[in-house]
Write a structure and sequence with these properties.
By secondary structure, the chain is of the alpha/beta class. About 45% of the residues lie in helices and about 15% in strands. It is built from eleven helices and ten strands. It is globular and about 55 Å long. The protein starts with a strand and ends with a helix.
Length: about 325
């Protein structure tokens, strides 16, 4: 495995500066944001798609530092009921797939998207319970009339360009857990897999280790981000928490730097289980810890995971 980083963390730096920062902490692979929610601070897929000089600059900047690109990321909502949002995110996705092919990158990361409750909606509508029965009617329409047709088409498009799609399971979108991730893959195409991020699973009460076993070879990419559950707030209010992320002391859970939500044993077990199901790609640090600065959170995560991956490799040598 390679230690990676979602490079949008250093969006205030130039691409070259951000790569140098990553390299100095032992990073081996970078995940580049190319549009939609991650923004275009380093790479604007639509703007450079036909600019071979710009594409070569990215390739050279990465390779000259001994790094690789683990994935291009354009997390968005191409199923958004607002046609202007859906169109913009879809175009970012299409351009990202085409750019990935030109760069020789085989994985593009995004969200599944979430439609509204009907063709007349203004905002996305995420269904979280089966009753009243109206919700199941909405859910059936979202999957069968919107999501599956869209992703079948994108699966075929990606296959033509030699690219796999890694869908990040995230509450608020149709794919948010193991069951929904596997459903989309089954219904739309087996080149649609998962960007595995345990932080989104922890706060839903899921066991990431068991999720890895169930997802198996559908895991195309992995994010390293932790979550800390506040026992008292959760006991009082459950985990469906809409308070602002900055209201840490009152929230049921918050995102944390790797190792600050779950201990070494969990992360060792996670890395080992990923290896057991055949994953040998990047473990990409995504920093969203509001209690640590960008640099502190990144450095601590990198040191923690570097040690973990080195120990894992040493174990392989011993077993060999």
């Amino acid at each position: 495995m390679k230690l990676g980083i979602f490079l949008v963390l250093f969006g205030q730096q130039s691409l070259e500066q951000a790569l140098d920062t990553a390299k100095s902490a032992g990073i081996q692979a970078v995940e580049l944001g190319t549009g939609a929610y991650p923004g275009t601070s380093h790479v604007n897929a639509k703007a450079i798609l036909n600019d071979e000089a710009a594409i070569n600059r990215i390739r050279t900047a990465v390779e000259s530092r001994g790094l690789t690109i683990s994935a291009l990321s354009c997390h968005g909502n191409p199923l958004h009921p607002d046609e202007s949002v859906a169109k913009a995110h879809h175009e970012d996705f299409v351009a990202t797939v085409q750019l990935a092919e030109k760069l020789g990158v085989d994985t593009v990361i995004t969200f599944s998207g979430c439609p509204g409750e009907s063709p007349n909606s203004k905002y996305p509508s995420w269904v979280t319970c089966p009753w009243p029965p109206d919700f199941l009617t909405v859910l059936e329409w979202q999957w069968n009339e919107v999501a599956i047709p869209y992703w079948k088409e994108q699966s075929a498009f990606c296959r033509k360009h030699g690219v796999k799609v890694a869908i990040e399971s995230h509450p608020g979108f149709l794919v948010y857990n193991t069951e929904t991730a596997l459903r989309l893959r089954r219904e739309a195409g087996d080149n649609i897999g998962v960007n595995f991020d345990p932080s989104h699973l922890f706060w839903q009460g899921m066991d990431p280790i068991e999720c890895v076993k169930a997802l198996g070879d559908s895991i195309y990419h992995v994010h390293a981000k932790d979550t800390k559950i506040d026992a008292r707030n959760t006991a009082l209010n459950g985990v469906l928490d809409v308070k602002p992320y900055a209201d840490e002391i009152n929230r049921s859970w918050i995102f944390r730097t790797v190792g600050y939500g779950h201990d070494d044993d969990f992360w060792k077990h996670l890395v080992s289980t990923l290896r057991l199901v055949g994953y040998d790609g990047a473990i990409s640090i995504e920093h969203e810890d509001s209690l640590m600065s960008v640099n502190e959170g990144f450095r601590k995560a990198a040191a923690f995971l570097n040690n973990l991956i080195l120990n894992e490799k040493a174990g392989e040598m011993w077993w060999a």
